[in-house]
Amino acid sequence: MATRSAPVSRRHHYTPRYYLERFQDADGALYRRDCETGAVVLGNKERFGYKNQWNTLRNPPPGYESDWAEKRIAEIDGLASALLTRILAGDMPADFRPIAYAISFMVHNQPRMWRELEEKHASEVEHWTDDWRLVVMLNAALEAAPDYVPPYYAVQAIDPAEPGLRFLTSSNPVINFENRPTMLLPVSSRHCLFLSWDPAHLRYERKSFPCGRDMVVGINQTTLTNAWQYVYSSTPSFNP
To answer: What are the DSSP calls for the chain, one per residue?
Structure first.
């Protein structure tokens, strides 16, 4: 008897589903605001953060299969999701690499990244095919991933006594401060990762500490400023 092959996914998420899921409300709803038009759309982790066939190699270069990118991304997303689940449960592992790889992929494999390359380095990339673009961007993400492993990291958690507060995120979720050896990454509507390369932050290493209203507002304002096109929220209000 003939067997039916598994369906081929067309929706390729550049903002991972496991990541967006943690910003949904209790009913699985997620709100997206377009920074360019101001339009707010109600959806969920499946509907947002993807482009059709974004990670498909149509004419793979020698040594690559058509699903090479999807397999690498699926492996990295699975490991990062498991580690993030542990961290949000209060278990702070010493090995941060799975999330560092996920961060690198979110930074490097974005539609906006490709648009910036076309605008700023047109003469260098104008001859690139979509296949070569994908290979270069994902290999760059793999090479850069170790740079996202912080010596010190902590979780900033919103006080349960503040049910009205929540973290926003965006299609450019990593907040990288210039001239400061720190990064922020909201990882749920109630939690934000604090990543540091500064020995002065040794006291924060692998701990959770409360995040007050002023700090939440400040992080959300930075998220809004940092966003490329879309901002995501667990509520229809996008006020910081």
So the answer is: -PPPPPPPP-EEESS-HHHHHTTS-TTS-EEEEETTT--EEEE-TTTSSEEETTT--SSPPTT--TTHHHHHHHHHHHHHHHHHHHHHTT---S--HHHHHHHHHHHHS-HHHHHHHHHHSHHHHTT--HHHHHHHHHHHHHHHGGGG--SEEEEEEE-TT-TT----EESS--EE-TTSSEEEEE-SSSEEEEEE--GGGGGGTTEEEEE-HHHHHHHHHHHHHH-SSEEEESSS----
Closest CA to 184 of 200, 165, 167: 167
Write the pLDDT tens digit of every residue in 99-154: 999 999 999 888 888 888 888 888 888 888 889 888 998 999 999 999 999 999 99
Read off the tokens for 3.
């067997």
Q: pTM (2 decimals)?
A: 0.89
CA distance 84 to 133: 29
